[in-house]
Amino acid sequence: MELLRSNLSRVQIPEPTHRIYKHECCLSFDTPRSEGGLFVDMNSFLAFGKDYVAWNHEKTGNPVYLHIKETPKSVPEDRPLKKPTLLAIGVDGGFDNSETEYEESYSIVILPDFVSLPFPSVELPEKVRIAVDTVLSAVGAERREQVALAAWTADEKKASEHALTLQQIKSGVVVPPSGWKCAKCDKKENLWLNLTDGMILCGRKNWDGTGGNNHAVEHYKETSYPLAVKLGTITADLESADVYSYPEDDSVLDPLLAQHLAHFGIDFSSLQKTEMTTAERELDQNTNFDWNRIQESGKELVPVFGPGYTGLVNLGNSCYLAATMQILFSTHSFISRYFSHQSLKLAFEMAPADPTLDLNMQLTKLGHGLLSGKYSIPVTEKDAATAEARQEGIPPRMFKSVVAAGHGEFSSMRQQDALDFFLHLLDKVERGNNTRPDLDPSRSFKFGVEEKILCSSGKVSYNKRDDCILSLNIPLQEATNKDELEAFNNQTAGKGLEENNMSTDEIVRPRVPLEACLATFASPEQIHDYYSTALKGKTTAIKTTGLTSFPDYLVLHMRKFVMDAGWVPKKLDVYIDVPDVIDISHMRSKGLQPGEELLPDGVPEEVTETAQPVANEEIVAQLVSMGFNQLHCQKAAINTSNAGVEEATNWLFSHMDDPDIDAPISHQASDVDQSSVDTLISFGFAEEVGRKALKASGGDIEKATDWIFNNPNASVSDMDVSSSSSAQTPAQTGLPDGGGRYKLFGIVSHMGTSTHCGHYVAHILKEGRWVIFNDSKVGISTDPPKDMGYLYFFQRLDN
Asked: What is the C-alpha separation between 637 and 644, in angstroms, rounded?
């Protein structure tokens, strides 16, 4: 006890602002349930496993720790699993995320000799008792983000803004209680009653061919009649009826639904439920995950354990992260950087005071968690559904928190695009290794792209950039099974068959070779209204694209999500025939050739004019009225992209002492604000296009968006084209390079109608066999879906 009293000055009582870690080690995935328990530093409130707490004592000198140990309680073996009835987690009727119950025990441990004192105990100093009680009663920082998840439910429906003002047409339509059929086709399911005119039409077609024929939504586009109710979901409980608002693009409540139904002679009290609502259909998908092919459902997957076969716990719509990280930590570059050549101790010694906020530390922690095999062991309880051995997996909470910091989407619990996350992560990794680019694993994915533009004058321009992915269009016209497709379409049309009544195996889908997708990328493309600096006017040019270097790892992104008529996102229902080995040697660009003449430098006059920075006069006037200098006010408005008075005022206070504050405003096109560029990137525009648009629009994001839509060929505009007489070699640019032969080793597949919903799964070639990584489930793959990938990962084959 005297030893503890002598170290009381190193004990803190937590304040509400303190981040308290007590569920997971900051350097590993040890928890209170691990063999050695967890040690909470009573000064910094960071937690450490038994093998790592001494490192913290060496680094900080903090000697007093709260030791937390959890041991499982016995539970009945025949405890039944309840089927969810609500799209929710952690609430009655939701998905059962109940875990084995544990008993906790505590003690105070003093390092370096691990002297243990019991807790609770009245003999402990009051400061220690208060500090420990505060730690135990606090919500752990590791789970603070998970609090929302613990009671996650599908968004509650809101009353439609169109319901109270809905005008119904007196057409004399009387809707019968059953026997409905689409007014424009033979569909008898998934039917929607428009509440304005009484038209009964089929719903949207799903990406896999099921559903309706889009007649209901097309009717809305023609008439602007806003509300429709799904027939078969109307019962005496009107709130459970599926009402959809097309202008609001969401399921809604109609407070006057009884009145609106009565207009068409519908007595809702006598109707029976025969159709699933939209939310129930989503629940059914979440319950069954019945995307059999990709998840290899129904196959007897043999679980696999050991180094490199560790699953990742789904934190709630985090499968995009899990699939991406499993593949990245199957590459030599990431393994070398964050596992084999960097120990946990070294990463901890280099980390700041709080290692949970350090990307290098958390990547190293994740790498060791996935690759050491320490956590890839069978648990005592078998999988309830398959009775097979399973592993718990590791939860990438701290990694997700630090990699998503400051990003509105990745820091949320919503599903994200795996491609967006991959690019975001590589950007963060590159920034984190900027002082040692030779250690940067993201460079193994980088390659040079060169666009050659041939003007009708005969002169050329070369535009170069670096990229990390090869994004490929899918030319459906190159399908190899056209005859089979035509026969299938004729058969279904002739017999009136509906695809939603057919099994997946019966539906014939286009099969497009990967070679055709690569050929489309490299094929010549016409650019209309191209401004030629040689002709001083617009003309038609020819653009061809090639690669200046071949990366260690080549990532192919299949553009399965396209914009349909009316800007409606659509997923292409197509198979891609991907060989195990590809050769892209023919895609290497050759640079400026003998006899070619470069286009002269210059930009269109109208672009030069619009690129001048202009301050918003209203903002400037308001700032001047506050007593600020006119020139300073103009600079503030320009440098905040005319965002508003408050933003400009903040800029003024931050830049009052700038040495150039009184210098005249430059009339040259200044660089654009990076946050504005990031905003346009989040809209789906390429970075170089966003920068050009912002320069041409004085930094105004809304105007820049309009500029992009009005300049569809902006990506190959002559504004920022870097013309050069000789192409730099990959060695000069620091990019990896080698031969053009690649072997497929990883696939990220997506199931669902959008990249922002559904589920992601990874398949990885390891030790000569394909392995499926489906969140925490890891098993030998018997039928990897090579033709259904969203992202394909290839490794260069060295000669």
From this structure: 8
Alpha carbons within 13 A on the beta-carbon side of 531: 20
Residue 24 neighbours by CB distance under 10 Å: 25
- What superfamily in CATH does domain 191-285 come from? Zinc/RING finger domain, C3HC4 (zinc finger) (3.30.40.10)
Q: Which residues contact 3 (CB under 8 A, 6 or more apart)?
A: 110, 115
Residue 770 host element (H or E): strand 769-774
**If you average pLDDT over residues 506-514, what whole number do you get?**
89
Domain extent listing, the chain: 1-74+100-138, 191-285, 457-554+574-587, 617-655, 674-709
The answer to whether 399 and 366 are in contact (CB under 8 A) is yes
**pTM above threshold 0.85:** no
- The domain 617-655 is placed in CATH, from the list 1.10.10.10, 1.10.8.10, 3.40.50.970, 3.90.550.10, at 1.10.8.10
Closest among 454, 633, 626 to 545, alpha carbons compared:
454
Q: What is the pLDDT of residues 299-334, one digit of tens each?
A: 667 899 999 999 999 988 899 999 999 999 999 999
The CATH code of domain 1-74+100-138 reads 3.30.40.10
Query: Bridge-partner residues for 749, per DSSP?
Result: 761, 789
Distances (CA, A) of 691 to 326, 426, 672, 712, 781: 33, 20, 7, 14, 44
- Contact between 17 and 124 under an 8 Å Cβ cutoff? The reply is no
Residue 311 has phi, psi (to 5 degrees) of -80, 165
Instruction: Tell me the two tokens of residue 476.
Output: 């459906």
Residues taking part in catalysis? 319, 759
Please, what sign has the CA dihedral across residues 480, 485, 487, 490? negative
Indicate the DSSP class of residue 173: -
Checking phi first, is residue 566 left (phi over 0); if not, alpha (psi -120 to 50) or beta?
A: left
Burial class (CB in 10 A: 0-12, 13-18, 19+), 10: middle
Question: Binding site membership: which residues?
Answer: 182, 185, 202, 215
Tokens coding 386: 């398959």
Give the phi and the psi of residue 160 in degrees, each rounded to 5.
-70, 140
Rounded CA separation 469/292 (Å): 28
26-30, 432-436, 640-644: range with highest mean pLDDT? 26-30
State whether residue 465 is helix, strand or coil. Answer: strand
Question: Rounded CA gap, 364 and 519, in Å?
Answer: 39
Given a contact cutoff of 8 angstroms between Cβ atoms, the answer to whether 335 and 321 are in contact is no
Asked whether the beta carbons of 450 and 545 are under 8 A apart, the reply is yes
457 secondary structure, DSSP code: T
d(CA 48, CA 199): 64
Q: Which residues are annotated as a binding site for Zn(2+)?
A: 182, 185, 202, 215
User: Measured between alpha carbons, how far is 569 from 207 in angstroms, rounded to an integer?
Assistant: 10
